[in-house]
């Protein structure tokens, strides 16, 4: 349904200076930013309640040099953050694009806190893989559901119109210039809404199986843990308008989704000293490399299943996250006082798990590196009571997308901006490169927040120029 229709002769029911497609974090932040710049804004959301992929995430946003870091005594800055992003993605991302979001995200969080009362704090008790500083910021529940709820509340309080159950099925354009959108309602009725500027904040293509098979074939049969509405509309519209795209195979996977509960289990269970074993009770990888690339590794195990094994000390850290508390409440987290007893609950070979954990203890005691390349130096031993969660690998969201400039304007194949089209979040090319291993924790919400604010401000300016001509 991602069509481009000619605008010539079309009568719009009404016209709004800035239209935002998508009511997740990127869309809500873009709407707030455009509204602050004096533009009338309409957010169009296909669901009955704006949630998007944001609600399914842990709601953690990496940001350098914030006041919360300074209060916690954490030294950090945009240059250091940018270096971490580029190192994780092996130099693939555009350095200018990385610098843009690394500089913008901290001020954006402080703006959301000061202007709209979002009570952020920094996660200061563990470090995510690939980050050289503790820079993850979240709300009290450490959940994406709280993040989107608070953003939605801020948009409502600002008096910004949000139209739900409004599925945008086509764009109207004169050449590369967008003139409006076609909105299809649940009863099949259609409305045509004109706009002077359009922000695409409807994420990537993770919910479009055909596009996933084309661009990320290794996860074609994986559990999709993103929003089903992520059908690649922004990508397809942009391409039809002549937009440049980049790193379409880039994506965020996750190797720790509780199965069959379908709940994200924080990667702190691994980074704080836990390990993953397969259904034979054996380790199969360097789990500490990162949760994104671990998705495909887990899926290559028998039945596409692994167990994350940790202890009560690590569980106590994980309980700061709402998702983990839910997993415990559902009985997805098993517990026992010995590896053999834990194995019996897991219904795997007790001798194999006991031997595996004994080898891990030996490596930790000696500060050794295992055959997979995981360095256990400084890692605390696992001690009773032990914990385990049955997990699978999943696709969360895609990271490639439309190429944008410093104002989040969508660029064509020659690097020229399309007249009035902007992209943020998963609709825009992210900073993870072309591979799952390039994903640095938080890169998804990084571009949602940073580019969302940039796009909203720039769209308001473009709308003023458009209407003054």
Automatic annotation (TrEMBL):
Keyword Flavoprotein annotated: yes
Claim: Oxidoreductase is one of the keywords in the record: yes
Protein name: Fumarate reductase flavoprotein subunit
Record-listed E.C. numbers: 1.3.5.4
Source species, domain of life: Bacteria
PANTHER family noted in UniProt: 3-OXOSTEROID 1-DEHYDROGENASE, FUMARATE REDUCTASE
Pfam families: FAD_binding_2
Enzyme class: oxidoreductase
Keywords: FAD, Flavoprotein, Oxidoreductase
Cofactor(s) the record lists: FAD
GO molecular function, one term: oxidoreductase activity
InterPro entries per the UniProt record, alphabetical: FAD-dep_OxRdtase_2_FAD-bd, FAD-oxidoreductase_2, FAD/NAD-bd_sf, Succ_DH/fumarate_Rdtase_cat_sf
FAD-dependent oxidoreductase 2 FAD-binding domain location: 18-434
